[in-house]
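hey so u asked for the seq, here:
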Amino acid sequence: MSQQSVNAIKVLGVDAINKAKSGHPGVVMGAAPMAYSLFSEHLRVNPKITDWINRDRFVLSAGHGSMLLYSLLHLSGFEDVSLDEVKNFRQWNSKTPGHPEFGHTKGVDATTGPLGQGISTAVGMALAERYLAERYNKVQYNVFDHYTYVICGDGDIMEGVASEASSFAAQQKLNKLVVLYDSNDICLDGETKDAFSENVRARYEAYGWNTILVEDGADVAAVSRALEKAKVSDKPTLIEVKTIIGAGSPNKQGTNGVHGAPLGEEETALFRKEIGWEYAPFEIPEEVYADFKEKVADRGEREYSKWEKLYKEYKEKYPELATELEEVLTREDVKHLSKESFNFKNVGESQATRNSSQDAINSVAAVLPTFFGGSADLSHSNMTFIKGEGLQDDKNRTQRNIQFGVREFAMATVLNGMMLHGGVRVFGGTFFVFSDYLKAALRLSALQNLPVTYVFTHDSIAVGEDGPTHEPIEHLASLRTIPNSYVFRPADATETQAAWYLSQKVNNKPSSLVLTRQNLPVLENTSFEQVSKGAYVVYESTEDFDTILIATGSEVALAIEAAKELEKSGIKSRVISMPSVELFEEQSKEYKEKLLPHNIRRRVSLEMGNTALWYKYVGLDGLAIGIDKFGASAPANKVIEEYGFTVTRVVEKIKNEL
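ran it, structure tokens below
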């Protein structure tokens, strides 16, 4: 029966890919036995309760092989993946898109496809499970007790982010993380030996992983025995499973020809004959459905029922803890966070917004019980440390500071994994210029609607002596182009507190806080409440103003001083602080017109970064004062002066060019 079910996974994938005339059949055919072994004997899921918090997580890191996952979900009884949806593989608005998409298809635990990020995201899932288990489990009440499983390929293993995250997973001893490595010696361009000849298991052993070799990937029982061993290890486990890509295809198996192209009618006919499959395309015998129902769906329902009974008793015995848990799982815990939760500086006081951010982090941590995070080896520069808490590791599982090491990309993927798991709120920090290292993961935060908070400090040429390599120029413009995300560049301590508050209120998108190293004065008219509108007036010469200055971050104070100087020449200005372009774009047309009246054409933007965005607001006849070249190394005040960000230079430029 197991062989019949394995063959069903294969042919369903091949048929769907042939119908779509697009897809990757090789991994489906080669990895079907290991996937069947995992689903039928080990994976604990309930197809009827797809969001069960204590289900095992499964990440198909080799997301290009999505039909492997869709075949498994369909056969296991997940309603989203009906046979009609399988037939609509890669078609408009289907539940079976080209790569698995979290939130689009029930049963998909993570968006995968960008290689390396799936296995790295799984590390975060395992970390979240361990944290929640340690915080909420009680003797005889293991509310959280599940594994995170991954199927990855050579491409995942080659990507650098997988190395970063795997090293971190070993450091953290995440023993409930189990990776099945589909080792078939083939990549898109040919044989892996032409580009990749290292001993993967030796590398993972050096990281600190447990490793196991399964020499015959078609041996379902051997894979199952390896999984049993992995589940009792005190380390994360990599199981290298030697497979044949496109197994069963007489002319294409073992070659890159079956990696990313349909088999086609002739080769499919030969494949069916080779494996003894006599059914029509998309026809699956009832005994296969019965096999999956018994081994996956029915087993999952029994496990869910046991857990449901246990959780009911847990709620009766630990009602306060259960109430807290339910609030964090639904993100209702944020109702306890308010303006009064934060500490504010007085007008005229001076503080770097990275320090204001640390104040806010500790305010949030005091209210939200599962809020935690860390930095890529920069916690004392990013100011991301939660005071009164230690470092989280295997021996201190509920401490709320994570030392990610110099692993920006992996940090962001781990944050994504924790948010995908649920029950936690997370943040991660680095220098703003290094946001480039993690942008691919931030993009997936946005794509998956994950409210991860990113803390980016040292936000401009005011970094000074560190020079061009550390002075972000294009980064603000770049982050603002990512859909479904917020970027906050607060003007002072007040706006920083508001940015943190709003980032925690958001449930469906990431927030990036872009913060200064240098001190900024607390301004008279900045407003905690108004930040939610994205932009608002912070200074106005008179109601009949004729010039609008728009600024963000450290340049807001500069814009106010410039406006006051312009008044001496009869130029009457309105100054707008725009801490979040994205929030401003969400406002009504009426509010936008009130703030930026169309009849006022003398408009100036002021921001120490790329100017491309600002022409949307100042118009072609306006003036965008910014930086469209790389920075320089010198004391911060000197660099700022040379780049024209002084009251004298700004006023001069406005007078000369408008």
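Residues 286-317 form the longest helix (32 residues). The longest strand covers residues 177-183.
lmk if thats what u needed
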